Every structure is written in structure tokens, then in C-alpha cells.
């Protein structure tokens, strides 16, 4: 199997991180990374992007939940309907 | 408390366990609902309907997916139904997600496919910089500009934290398709961050 180019590698990063590449493709990806600093940097950028996305998704501190009272009313109404 | 214990406690009417679930997931649920409906009020209604759906569905929960995945599946369905009614989303959206764009601007490569100039590592950037309000805001703006399908996938995968199988199941798409959408979405967010961080 021929070697990957950098332009091909950047299209496979999500498959690679998900472990969704076939074994030989995965090995080809690793071989390219070993010899290519630019692609190691790109992979680092993608992993950092994912980290920041996780950060953006982090919920506010407990106790800051809006509408908890209304949802608890939903719960109490539901509980009353139970046999 | 594991998922089956949580479900058993809810079936038994344990309000403390329910309140804990609400505290844990409600902020994220509101954020997801806002992708489908027009107003914060509508999003709040969708989330309330979701909790009712969760309670009414307790007897049908079989533990084949996690409680989190199950809650977000109900949420996405509720939000889509409401979004269609409010004409915010079109049902059966076409596969607009695969817009065929390259993950990295082709001009960054030499004709042979190698980097023309190294992209540069971000590992040295301080955590405070990555977690700053400005950086988070840039990410949220980038997500808001994505096509709807890409937006759904990246929010459920990278913000909510579901795995690929869970997201494809929730959205009714194949895992491969889910990954294509996720890759396009992450690539665009990366490009936006590059503008912000470097």
C-alpha cells in the first residue's frame, strides 16, 4: 500500500481517533505520523479543538439549573398519576 | 449509582434521584433544544416535555442504551417535532452535511500533497487561553454557523459527550455518515480556532 500524503491524512483524523480505520490503514496513518512533524501538529490541533469543544459543553455549576422547580412539578404530577 | 439503579429509583418515585438527573443534564438539554426551536421559552418547554417523556417511558427502558443516551434521544425527537411545528426545521433534512469541502484549505499543501508550511502545534498554549471566555465564544459561534446536520452531530458527540454509536442511533443515520458529518464540523471549528488562537 502506498504512503499517505498529508492532504489525505487530514481527511482521516476523525476515523483514526474513533478507531474506525481498518488495521492496515491505521498502520499507514501511524507510519506517516512517525515521519511527519506537520501532521503531528495538525493532529494536536484537532485534539485541542475537541478539548475546547468539551469545555464549551461543560454544564454550569450545580444549583444554577434554570427551571428546576417547574420540572419537579412535572415529577410530582407524574407521581400522583401512578397507580 | 448505575443506570439500572437510577431507573429503579425513579420508578419508585425517588424525587432526589430525579432532581440530580435534572441538575446534571438540564443545562445541556436546553442548549441542544435551542438548535431546533426559535425561543428560549420554547426550548424550556421542549425540555419539560422531555422529562415527562422520560417518566412515562420508565417502564419501557430496557438498559440497552445508557440513561443519558436515552434522555437525549427523547429530547432530540421532542425538539424536532416542536421545531417542525414552529417551522424552524424541515423534516427529513437532505444530507446537506456532506458538502464535500476539504478538512484543510487545499492551498496549505504543495502539489504533491505535503504541507507547504507546518501548521504549528497548539500544545504550548496555556490552558487559561484554551478555556478563556473568548475561545469558548469563538467555538460556539463556529458551531452556530455549521449546516444543521453537522451541528447536531458535533453537539451530541463533543459537547454532550455521546459516542459515535449513540449519536448515529439517536439521529437515525449510519455510523459512517455520522463520522463524515463530525469530521467536517470539527474541521471547521478547528479553522475558526486557528483564527482565534494564532
TrEMBL record, chain A:
Domain of life: Bacteria
Pfam families: zf-HC2 (PF13490)
Domain Putative zinc-finger: start-end pairs: 6-40
Protein name in UniProt: Zf-HC2 domain-containing protein
Organism field: Svornostia abyssi
UniProtKB/TrEMBL annotation, chain B:
Matches recorded under Pfam families: Sigma70_r2, Sigma70_r4_2
Alphabetical UniProt keywords: Sigma factor, Transcription, Transcription regulation
Domain RNA polymerase sigma factor 70 region 4 type, first and last residues per copy: 138-188
Gene3D superfamilies in the record: 1.10.1740.10, Winged helix-like DNA-binding domain superfamily/Winged helix DNA-binding domain
Matching InterPro entries: RNA_pol_sigma-70-like, RNA_pol_sigma-70_dom, RNA_pol_sigma70_r2, RNA_pol_sigma70_r4_t2, RNA_pol_sigma_r2, RNA_pol_sigma_r3/r4-like, WH-like_DNA-bd_sf
Transmembrane annotation, as ranges: none
Domain (RNA polymerase sigma-70 region): residue spans on this chain: 21-82
UniProt-listed NCBIfam families: sigma70-ECF
Assigned protein family: Belongs to the sigma-70 factor family. ECF subfamily.
Protein name: Sigma-70 family RNA polymerase sigma factor
Species this chain originates from: Svornostia abyssi
Taxon lineage: Bacteria, Bacillati, Actinomycetota, Thermoleophilia, Solirubrobacterales
Amino acid at each position: 500500500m502506498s504512503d499517505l500524503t498529508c492532504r489525505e491524512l487530514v481527511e482521516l483524523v476523525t476515523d483514526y481517533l474513533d478507531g474506525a480505520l481498518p488495521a492496515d490503514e491505521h498502520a499507514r496513518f501511524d507510519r506517516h505520523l512517525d515521519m511527519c512533524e506537520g501532521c503531528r501538529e495538525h493532529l494536536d490541533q484537532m485534539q485541542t479543538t475537541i478539548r475546547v469543544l468539551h469545555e464549551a459543553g461543560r454544564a454550569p455549576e450545580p444549583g444554577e439549573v434554570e427551571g428546576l422547580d417547574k420540572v419537579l412539578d412535572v415529577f410530582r404530577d407524574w407521581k400522583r398519576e401512578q397507580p | 449509582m448505575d443506570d439500572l439503579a437510577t431507573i429503579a429509583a425513579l420508578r419508585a418515585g425517588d424525587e432526589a434521584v430525579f432532581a440530580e438527573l435534572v441538575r446534571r443534564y438540564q443545562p445541556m438539554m436546553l442548549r441542544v433544544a435551542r438548535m431546533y426551536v426559535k425561543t428560549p421559552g420554547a426550548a424550556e418547554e421542549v425540555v419539560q416535555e422531555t422529562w415527562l417523556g422520560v417518566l412515562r417511558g420508565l417502564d419501557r427502558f430496557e438498559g440497552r442504551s445508557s440513561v443519558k443516551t436515552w434522555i437525549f434521544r427523547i429530547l432530540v425527537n421532542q425538539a424536532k417535532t416542536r421545531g417542525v411545528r414552529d417551522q424552524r426545521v424541515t423534516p427529513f433534512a437532505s444530507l446537506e452535511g456532506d458538502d464535500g469541502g476539504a478538512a484543510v484549505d487545499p492551498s496549505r499543501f504543495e502539489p504533491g500533497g505535503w504541507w507547504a508550511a507546518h501548521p504549528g502545534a497548539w500544545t504550548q498554549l496555556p490552558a487559561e487561553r484554551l478555556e478563556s471566555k473568548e475561545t469558548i465564544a469563538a467555538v460556539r459561534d463556529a458551531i452556530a454557523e455549521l449546516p444543521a446536520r453537522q451541528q447536531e452531530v458535533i453537539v451530541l458527540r463533543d459537547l454532550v459527550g455521546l459516542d459515535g454509536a449513540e449519536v448515529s442511533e439517536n439521529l437515525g443515520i449510519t455510523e459512517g455518515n455520522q463520522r463524515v458529518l463530525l469530521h467536517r464540523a470539527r474541521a471547521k471549528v478547528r479553522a475558526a480556532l486557528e483564527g482565534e488562537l494564532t
